[in-house]
Amino acid sequence: MNDVYEIAPVEGGKAGGMARVATLRNRLLEENPHVITTLSGDFVSPSLIGTLTYQGEKIAGKQMVEVMNALGVDYVVPGNHEYDIKEDEHLKRIAESDFQWITTNCFHKVDGKIVPWEQNGKPFPDHVIYSIDGVDIAFFGSTVPFNKKEYVSYTDKYESVKATYEKLKDEAEVFIGITHLEEDMDDSLATYFVPELDLILGGHDHVNMKHQYGDVIMTKADANAKTVYVHRVSYNKATGKTTIQSELVSIDETIAEDPTVKKVVDKWVNISNESMANMGYQPDEIVMVTKDTLDGRESSIRYKPTNYPIMTAESFLFVAPEADLAIFNSGSIRLDDILTGTITEYDILRSFPFGGGISLVDLQGDVVERVLETGTITNIGIGGYLQLANAEKRNDGWYIKGEKLSASKTYKMALPQFVMGGGEANLEFLKNYQNQSQNPDSFKEVKNDVRDIIMAYFRQLPQGN
Q1: Which SS3 state, helix, strand or coil, does residue 438 take?
Q2: How far is CA 391 from the centre of its chain?
Q3: Three-class secondary structure of residue 105 per DSSP
Q4: DSSP one-letter string for 391-422
Q5: What are phi and psi of 303, to 5 degrees?
Q6: Average pLDDT value for residue range 424-443
Q7: SS3 423
């Protein structure tokens, strides 16, 4: 598995669900007692449940660790989102883990010193050896150094794996990487640094794939356990040859839910449902049915115009048609996943866990142009990258509602209140115009909260297209 933020089924119950994964694991154990279950990073964050409070503390991934313990996960590597939460929260999640954390390149920064992360008083190992009938299988991995939290330090994502392999190459027969890297990084790792790997269990990209880099097989499953990869690995002692049969298994309604794991899942679902109900939402209520794929992955929305955040900007114009254009900061979408099929209120809430209203402000054209240029060029790759509605850049400049932007004309812009208050990097200057903005409590019957706004917009769109 990789990139699992949701413990219960998604897509209206049709896909995913950790209790279903547990059933599959139990079936595999009947086939072979040597079943090794791994998760290739990104599990304690992001999730809606993780943002809620339970028994006086922010949940912050506690629900995932409990479910993974119940399921029987063996090994994990950190993903970049493991470091979204606070340092003390991260340390608690490690302490609660029954599974083994391993890493070759992630370290803990304490009082300016770089030290290994610890679990049960011992440093995270840079590898784990699993032995079967005299055959040793080495697991080791690497993480993208994207999350630059002050309490985290990284060594080189390639050289760290290479150094570990060089140390182990005479101690094991089978070598398996558990990585949380981008697809091209896995390619580089297998092609240029450790071509001796037999298998890479990848993560980070959220969509299933299987590639062969020389003799190295690399696979990734779909996020949120909508699929998992099952690898049947055999080693011939006489010839020294490793054979791998890889099967992508869909986790869907045809797989029953394991009752033990379901009990833990239901506990946390009930806690979150109660919180959402207190906020006025019905998690299972259908908002939209679509054949399209709404892309909320950070690797898309922070780098290029993408449909889900564009539709969010369009929803601002739906409730405020008097606005000439709308902008939306991609970092407000915390889904880091794709949505398709049945979209529920819960899907919207997990996309926008922090909510927040929108503002309307009149700005001169030269200021509008500065916002657009900064948000779509300077801010590429960060949360302040802007997605637009009714604004388009052509060869000869910016156009608003199909007409070329005039520096002296006044335009009414709809934007998140967070952005209006100067909360995004390089757009802090917008705070200078905050006192002339309008911040209504509602737009007719729609509450001024981005979650309510996009729900209302989605509900009026043609369904099933």
Answers
A1: strand
A2: 28
A3: coil
A4: EEEETTEEEETTEE--TTSEEEEEEEHHHHTT
A5: -125, -20
A6: 96
A7: coil
Place of tokens 């399209």: 292
* Segment 362-396, tens digit of pLDDT: 999 999 999 999 999 999 998 999 999 999 999 99
d(CA 53, CA 135): 46
Structure tokens at 320: 């405020």
State how far the Cα of 3 lies from the Cα of 144, in Å rounded to an integer: 13
Facing residues of 199 across strands? 176, 217
pLDDT in tens, 210-258: 999 999 999 999 999 999 999 999 999 999 999 999 999 999 999 999 9
Its CATH class, for the domain covering 281-460, is: alpha beta
Answer yes or no: are the C-beta atoms of 3 and 203 closer than 8 Å: yes
- Domain 18-250 part of CATH 3.60.21.10: yes
Domain extents in the chain: 18-250, 281-460
Distance CA 376, CA 370 (A): 10
Model confidence, pTM: 0.86
Q: What is the DSSP pairing of strand 325-329 with strand 410-416?
A: parallel
State how far the Cα of 449 lies from the Cα of 312, in Å rounded to an integer.
Answer: 12
Q: Which helix (H) or strand (E) holds 452?
A: helix 450-460
Chain length of the chain: 465
pLDDT tens string 53-63: 899 999 999 99
Alpha-carbon gap, residue 417 to 451, rounded angstroms? 13
End-to-end CA distance of the chain: 30
Query: What is the DSSP annotation of 318-339?
Result: HH-TT-SEEEEEGGG----SEE
pLDDT above 90 coverage of the chain, percent: 91
Q: Are 82 and 90 in contact (CB under 8 A)?
A: yes
Taking alpha carbons only, the member of 281, 285, 283, 250 closest to residue 268 is 283
Determine the Cα–Cα distance for residues 50 and 234; give it in Å rounded to an integer: 39
CB 180 within 8 A of CB 142: yes
